[in-house]
Design goal:
Helix content is about 50%, strand content about 15%. It is an alpha/beta fold. The longest helix has 15 residues.
């Protein structure tokens, strides 16, 4: 865990230009013991400004729930800059089904997953928890739309060892390095090494992209969360 106190809640920052959306998510998270909303913003620049002030106080949130379509600096650009400045902060993109290409851009910018804006509240909470643990949360409804446009010409599962295929399947299930280690009864360091080798062999920049490809290739059941 990122906190020295494992009972401490996940600190979440909400970024959405619709106040009613922020209010609804905030109200739901207030009912949970393990998630705490620590800030809000209505556009990407406001997110970066808030983080600059928080960084000065060593008070950064763990996860940002980031709307991809906001006025001024959009969610994709804000995600890219946020990950450049504060790489330890995880970003979960919020999107509609019609914005799959924006999701791709957000993943390439460093987002660790995405959730649909019409998802049930429990799914949004699950996405936040998964990101906090270092995993990848992939909304099932968008996964196929994204993977259909991914080029697989230079990628083959035959390039992976049996163990690497096991690791990739677990990545596709949203497992963090710790979760992979626990499942395979190996050290977390070994799990991290396996994940890095898988990404290098397949030419992916992030574990989320690898997870999408693995789902489409049938190495793991389509995410159901």
């Amino acid at each position: 865990m990122r906190e020295s106190d494992p009972t401490a809640p996940v600190r979440v920052f909400l970024a959405d230009d619709h106040a009613v959306v922020r209010s609804g998510i905030h109200a739901f998270f207030d009912m949970l013991d393990d998630i705490e909303v620590v800030g809000e913003a209505a556009d990407g620049q406001a997110v970066l400004d808030a983080f600059e002030h928080r960084a000065a106080r060593s008070d950064l949130p763990h996860v940002v729930l980031m709307d991809l379509v906001m006025p001024g600096l959009d969610g994709v650009s804000a995600t890219r800059e946020l990950k450049r400045l504060y790489p330890a902060v995880e970003v979960v993109a919020m999107t509609s089904f019609s914005e799959a290409e924006r999701v791709r851009a957000a993943l390439e910018a460093g987002a660790s997953g995405y959730v649909l804006k019409d998802a049930v509240a429990d799914e949004v909470a699950a996405a936040v928890r998964t990101a906090y643990r270092g995993g990848s949360y992939l909304a099932p409804a968008v996964a196929r739309k994204l993977t259909q446009s991914m080029s697989t010409a230079q990628r083959s599962v035959t390039a992976l060892t049996a163990r690497e295929r096991e690791v990739l399947a677990l990545v596709a299930q949203g497992k963090s390095n710790r979760g992979i280690a626990e499942t395979l009864v190996i050290s977390e360091r070994t799990a991290r090494t396996h994940v890095s080798k898988v990404l290098n062999k397949l030419g992916f920049a992030s574990r989320t992209q690898a997870a999408l490809w693995a789902i489409e290739e049938g190495l793991s059941p389509r995410a159901s969360h």
